[in-house]
Amino acid sequence: MQNASLTILGCGSSLPTRKNFPSAQILEIRDKQFLIDCGEGTQIRMRQMGVKTNRLGHVFISHLHGDHCFGLIGLISSFGMLNRTADLHIHAQADLEKILEPQLAYFCAELPFKVVFHAINPRKHELIFEDRSVQVFSIPLKHRVPCCGFLFEEKPRDRHIIREMIDFYNIPTWRIPKIKQGEDFITEEGEVISNADLTISSEVPKRFAYCSDTAYSEKIVPIVQGVDCLYHEATFMEDELLRSKQTQHSTARQAAEIAKLANVKKLIIGHYSARYSNQNELLREAQLVFENTILGEDMTVYEI
């Protein structure tokens, strides 16, 4: 099975630093690429990392703060200069289309591809995208403006048929796809061979959740329960708890508490305030609550 991976292009907050660009990351899963948020400098990070975007068809924008969407128009313009022809689908609240349309008309009037907008309701937890192998759900978050996270889930793969059983029961090739999908097999003599005897289960589907920006909210716990990897913002440390409440952000400890309550397998923290030159302090605070916490870093790839 091909591994799923997360490439963090930027995990800073609203004020860029030398170390951290604003929010942007690419999830690679089932031979597809999904761009999650597109802060200023996203395409620069892509170039620095040599990221190929030939499988990038969908962009998901969590909310309309600049550090999560200012990079979009530049990325779209560059795609045009690179003669991209595949449609680019943008999933975001409806206002983003109103904001980008005049920019596209002015700067990108002759694009060789279509930019297709899909309006989502950030206040509802619902299915917002699916294809044959992946589905994406919105996760309502608690922020100063309408904001949602995203839950990416692989759809279950077909079961694996046991090679020896094909030969033993002389199973014709045309029956194999149905058996992989769960059907039993009936021999020429009329004997029913149970699917459980013919196949083994496929790999457990991967699940990744992105939750930024948000204040502490246990409402997301049932949605992200047991995910393989949770990316959760950790803008502040606990000694800035008042500031986090005022700005509707989370502390590193609060991110870890969500991870612990949801029993996730791995937590990656990010969206750091520019005030923290030593982000290991944020990591230590989170690990006191949830040990399997990883410090998100720009230009780093994480296996899911």
Please characterize this protein's 3D structure.
This protein has about 300 residues and is of the alpha/beta class. The protein folds into 2 domains: about 5-155 and about 205-304, 4-Layer Sandwich (Metallo-beta-lactamase, Chain A); about 160-200, no CATH class. About 25% of the residues lie in helices and about 25% in strands. It has 11 helices and 18 strands. The chain has helices at about 40-50, 65-70, 70-80, 95-105, 165-170, 175-180, 195-200, 220-225, 240-245, 250-260, 280-285, and strands at about 5-10, 25-30, 30-40, 55-60, 90, 115-120, 125-130, 135-140, 150-155, 160, 185, 190-195, 200, 205-210, 230-235, 265-270, 295, 300-304. The strands form 4 sheets. Strands 6-5-4-3-2-1-18 form a 7-stranded mixed sheet. The longest helix is centred in the N-terminal third of the chain and has 13 residues, at about 95-105. The radius of gyration is 22 Å and the shape is globular. The two termini are about 10 Å apart. The model has no long low-confidence stretch (mean pLDDT about 95).
